[in-house]
Amino acid sequence: MTTALIERFRNRLPVSTETPVVSLGEGSTPLLSASRLAQAAGVRELWLKWEASNPTGSYKDRGMTVAVSKALEQGAEAVLCASTGNTAASAAAYAARAGLPALVLTPEGAVSGAKLAQTRMLGATVLEVQGSFDETLRAAQELADRGRHVLVNSLNPNRREGQKTAVFEIVDEVGEAPDAFVLPYGGGGNTSSYAQALGELGLRTPIVSVEATDRRATLATAIRIGRPVHAASVREAGARVLAVTDEEVVAAWRTLAEEEGLFCEPSSAAGLAALAHAELEPGSTVVCVLTGHGLKDTDAVDVLTPGTTLVEPTVEAILAEVRR
């Protein structure tokens, strides 16, 4: 039987015996050693936190279990989010589990088809907003202020409370704090969550937050956010912000797949892409956080990898194609 994340970390979360636990078995995700990538990056140890194994395929589930559980406890009629895709799917899934309606607002044309399909299948009402993510989030906030919907974006502190649990898992499994955490930087909520957890543990581990060079047009749709709402928190956390190009993201994305067997969405590869610029000590132990599954953004695969080849059903034809 899977233990809910809230139950595993109850003494570190803002819940009580009165909080109804809405869970899909989130958390306890694999921490995978990547010795070849460590050697290539010039560090002693590199660990990959595989958050794609969460129920809806992204790290968002850690925070959503707490946000939706608290919303249900507080008598919410419905939940609401603005999203570039992963929050949408997570909100829809946990709302369905709680028996609550979910309203999802997405910026027009900015979300992968796979993420939209997942969200729609989970029963949410999905509306595309004619504008950027920043405009979409602003509309969601205004709607939430009217009282019926609870906003479950990372502006909701309960989301960040849940997301911080990844740090507790990593420190416990490594046996000590690593020398650096490296993670993608879209809105900055995850960086804020990691910093909160480190503060609670009395640790000063550096955080490297990795954004796209062109935030508004990057192919890494999960971090295609022009104005990160948690930028101030990222600065207060002392996180080091690095920017990577789409070309660097794609190279790291393909490396993770072809050398480590991990099919993540492009934004998840931002951390690995940044290691070349991070100037970490050779003796460092580093954790890169892979935030979402590649099946959430199959559009990128169609654009960035070769297609399949049709062959005749003979060994000769197959071998001829393999030898090309």
Describe the protein.
The protein is 40% helix and 15% strand. With 324 residues, the protein is an alpha/beta fold. It has two domains: 5-58 and 158-304, 3-Layer(aba) Sandwich (Rossmann fold); 60-156, Rossmann fold. The protein has a six-stranded mixed beta sheet with strand order 1-2-10-7-8-9, sandwiched between helices. Strand 4 (102-107), helix 5 (113-121) and strand 5 (125-129) form a beta-alpha-beta unit. Helix 3 runs parallel beside helix 4 (86-98). It starts with a helix and ends with a helix.
Comma- or semicolon-separated keywords:
alpha/beta; Rossmann fold; 2 domains; 324 residues; single chain; four-stranded parallel β-sheet
